[in-house]
Design brief:
four-stranded antiparallel sheet
Length: 186
Amino acid sequence: MQRPRLKPPASIWKRIDSSPERLISLAALAVAFGALCVSLWQLDMAKQHNVLSVRPYLMVTPHLAGANGKNGLFLTNEGIGLGILTSLSVSVSGKVYAGLGKNQWPKILRDMGLEPLCFSIGWPTKVAALRPGMEIEILGKSKLFNSGCELALATFLTTKDVSIELRYTSLYEEEHTFSGDTFLNL
């Protein structure tokens, strides 16, 4: 007895081609998948744009403009979003003074041999925030400023071994760091 010969299965394309509804369904599925991919890509691009549209750029800048000018260290936000401070440290000759809240300037100035009463001082508190375009004087000349104090401020701003590291986050909790020195190139 002879066995019946089995026909090879029809190729997938012949099966699809035999029914136009299947071909249209597969085309619609491919278009839908492409639309999904484009939508996900656009969503990712929109998120990146939103993150960049609120990115802060905090920095500390020294100024020494003379008797009637802007003198001291200034904390500014040059970015376009709110900057939330997470830490601040000042390093003088390798010794680090760090932390938010407790003012470190009197100790720093005394350790440098400078009179703290010659300076107006400000130290950021925990979870302090700086809005865009804001500038805060963190070290400047005191209202009790006398001629010896002018020299003390100039000495501080021209000392090469004082550096500042500032850590902060954006509204999207991205971490950023500013590192710089207080040295003026005079």
